[in-house]
Design brief:
The structure is a single chain. With 453 residues, the chain is an alpha/beta fold. The protein folds into four domains: 130 residues, Rossmann fold (3-Layer(aba) Sandwich), CATH 3.40.50.2300; 163 residues, Rossmann fold (3-Layer(aba) Sandwich); 74 residues, Orthogonal Bundle (Helicase, Ruva Protein, domain 3); 46 residues, Arc Repressor Mutant, subunit A (Orthogonal Bundle), CATH 1.10.10.60. It contains 19 helices and 14 strands. A five-stranded parallel sheet has the order 2-1-3-4-5, sandwiched between helices. A hairpin with an 8-residue loop joins strand 9 and strand 10. Helix 5 packs across helix 13 and helix 13 packs across helix 15. The longest helix has 30 residues. The two termini are 43 Å apart.
Length: 453
Amino acid sequence: MRPQVVVVDDDRAMCELLELGLGKRGFDVRPTTDPRKVLDLLQQGSVEAVVTDLNMPGKNGIELTRQVVGNRPDLPVIVITAFGSMTSAIEAMRAGAYDFVTKPLEVDALAIVLQRAIQHRALREEVKLLRQAVAITKSNDLLIGESQEMRQVFDLLTRIAEADISILILGESGTGKELVARSLHARSPRRDQPFVAVNCSSLPEALLESELFGHTRGAFTDARTPRRGLFQQAHGGTLFLDEIGDLPLSLQPRLLRALQERKIRPVGSDTEVDVDVRVLAATNQDLERAVGEKLFRGDLFYRLNVVQLRLPPLRARGNDVLLLAQHFLNQAAARQSKRVERISTQAAERLLAYAWPGNVRELQNCIERAVALTAYDQIGVDDLPERVRDHRPSPILVASDHPSELVSMDEIERRYILRVLDVVGGNKTLAAQILGFDRRTLYRKLERYGVTF
């Protein structure tokens, strides 16, 4: 829809000029020569900005600006005058004007100011709505998001939470896979029993075996006392196996048996122990490809993958970035005892433009840092990390109808590979997965294009 703009000028010819000029530039103009009618016009339809002359009989532009801002503080007002003095500019801004433009008027310049004002207003409204959404979020809710991608996740969560089945949670690092696992546990009939988590990539093979299944006294050097493993500690509840793709091949048969038989045998023991756990597993790897490459057992994969839940990366979640940022701001401000309440419009624009290769975890760290650095009640652009503050998206395709500006498929592929690598922070394994290549193919293409990353 074309944005609606009210234009106020006692000169009818100027009104007609702006109606025609701004109309050609995509605006729906409602002109009037009577400033007393402006408030009535604001009630008719969805007006997104007001343009007013400064010197008018009866009510000048400064008075009108105060009146509009007083009734509609969300509405940007742009003041036009032939007297471009600093005094007039300061007076207009103090009255609440968004910007100040001097005559002789260039319609193109006014259109740019209007577009910027309307975008600024829309973003402020978005930040306001998202801040309100955070405020009404229940304290026991572990996941936050309003995007279509997250609504699909929430819908699947609701349908599978009470089913006592294994679930494989997929997603890039930092997308919140453990939060999903905790949410599934909190909504399940096992909610009053233990939730136990282990990262399969964080321990060497020998220790991981003992960690999962426990051991008897004397089972190995330093095993001076018997120890209950995580399966036993999670008895009756939920066991979350994070980074399951890094589970050593030698341990995979033991895990498969535990899932199938609901029995485990501690290291060094001759007897089996019954266990009752719901197993949730998570990975950022392509397990189906790992099965094909004999790096992961197919029978274990199918046992874990009864239902698959895939988390979207933060870059695909749109305005959830601002919703999460406000949530993290509230948490960080409370922890640091600082009166930081909001994110500036300019900072919000940078947060939305950045690709977040580290996903939600990176955003949380960014906001905690910004809260610590800011000297005001809001986060500004200068409080953001340099990589976020200075990020500029790189073009992949050429938006042109001229043959001389079009590029080859090789060049498009080169640009896209570089874009994916930039988004994932140089992680070649993850980039290869997204691109559908194996790592060797990716390296060959980088070498072919003369790219070092």
